[in-house]
Amino acid sequence: MSDKLILVLNCGSSSLKGAVLDSASGEVLLSCLAEKLNLSDAFITFKINGEKEQVSLAAQPNHTGAVGALLAELQKHGLDSRIGAVGHRVVSGGEAYSESVLIDEQVLAAVEKCIPLAPLHNPANLLGIRAAQDIFKGLPNVAVFDTAFHQTMPAHAYTYAIPRRFYRDFSLRRYGFHGTSYRFVADEAARFLGKDKNSLRMVIAHLGNGASVAAIKNGESQDTSMGLTPLEGLVMGTRSGDLDPSVFSFLADNTGLGIQEITDLLNKQSGLLGISELSNDCRTIEEEAAKGHEGALLALEIFAYRLAKYVASMAVAAGGLDALVFTGGIGENSALVRAKVVGYCEFLGLKLNEEKNLAARFGNAGVITEDTGGAVAVVIPTNEELMIAQDTARLSGL
Ligand code: AMP
């Protein structure tokens, strides 16, 4: 094993998140976040050795400028020569990729071809890849796709019940997201429970600001709640999740909003934020619910109830349930949400242990149910960056 470090990049349309990791130990040596890209007051914040430092990107306020500033920061700390490869989070690999891949011109073309499937994300991912190729000259680049892990879903799980020509002509189908997190958490859960992952029927709930669930059997994704886009499925921070598709025409007819405005409304103003009329942040909602705020109480109940219904349906996809796994900011920290969900799922054989539920927070893994000999619920912190770094090291031969 080499002592080279991996740079992991996660690019959004106006942001860039980066981390430098030792892929063997998981140690993060530096992390950064560039914000307001493409605006004149863009800046990047570095975190290294427990210190924070902010640098203006006014001279070149775009993804290339951010990657350039990152190289300068690495040089300042003598880390630049230790970087062996760059791993990129890429949102959609469509049907082309079921695994991570070393990037060449053909891969770049395929990522470009998937832009209609992820119109906001894939262009930003491509900018990040091109910037890394320009600035970290000669280093291998690896693409790790959010969709890849779900490519094992059977056709009956990924096909929408609309005329099939739209699948044939436009690749319109369910793809799912959060795949890198599911892959990491599925492995970790099996290890934590001391079981062979191929013998575990798992339902994993990745609950962050974006949230989804997935059914895993034989270590493979069988189904997941997000679809063509991340809007399908659970109630999320600002996304509605599932609703009657006729809500679109109802809103258009009755409010005069256009398609893009309704899409924005359902993606950015709905979910916990829309119901509570307070915040998309689960912590704030919990604080206000504790004071009796009606909207916050309803938002939490809908979030948990809809999630529990999905857990039960994902148990169908997994062929049963051995482990319900919670991860993501809410899954790893909100004892309240977990208690509600496990409560709804008692009929699946889960019985909450309150003490264990409170102990498994703030980065601590743990089983949170009584030992009944049947299914367990367990909290496993996710680490997508480490998964990307490990894939990158392996595919780069480091
Ligand atoms: P993520 O997108 O994975 O970073 O998760 C963000 C979500 O996790 C936000 O809704 C946060 O409010 C939520 N979260 C983080 N810490 C806590 C906590 N201690 N209790 C409840 N929710 C939390």
TrEMBL record:
UniProt keyword terms in alphabetical order: ATP-binding, Cytoplasm, Kinase, Magnesium, Metal-binding, Nucleotide-binding, Transferase
UniProt-listed InterPro entries: Ac/propionate_kinase, Aliphatic_acid_kin_short-chain, Aliphatic_acid_kinase_CS, ATPase_NBD
Entry EC no(s): 2.7.2.1
GO terms of molecular function: acetate kinase activity; ATP binding; magnesium ion binding
Residues that, per the record, bind Mg(2+): N10, E384
Major subcellular site: cytoplasm
Positions annotated to bind ATP: K17, H206, L207, G208, N209, G210, D281, C282, R283, G329, I330, G331, E332, N333
Highest taxon of the lineage: Bacteria
Matching SUPFAM superfamilies: Actin-like ATPase domain
Catalytic reactions of this protein: acetate + ATP = acetyl phosphate + ADP
Binding positions for substrate per the UniProt entry: R89
Cofactor(s) named in the record: Mg(2+); Mn(2+)
Subcellular location: Cytoplasm
A GO cellular component entry from the record: cytosol
Pathway: Metabolic intermediate biosynthesis; acetyl-CoA biosynthesis; acetyl-CoA from acetate: step 1/2
Record Gene3D superfamilies: 3.30.420.40
Subunit structure as annotated in this protein's UniProt entry: Homodimer.
Physiological role: Catalyzes the formation of acetyl phosphate from acetate and ATP. Can also catalyze the reverse reaction.
Entry's family note: Belongs to the acetokinase family.
Name assigned to this protein: Acetate kinase
Organism: Conchiformibius kuhniae
Lineage of origin: Bacteria, Pseudomonadati, Pseudomonadota, Betaproteobacteria, Neisseriales
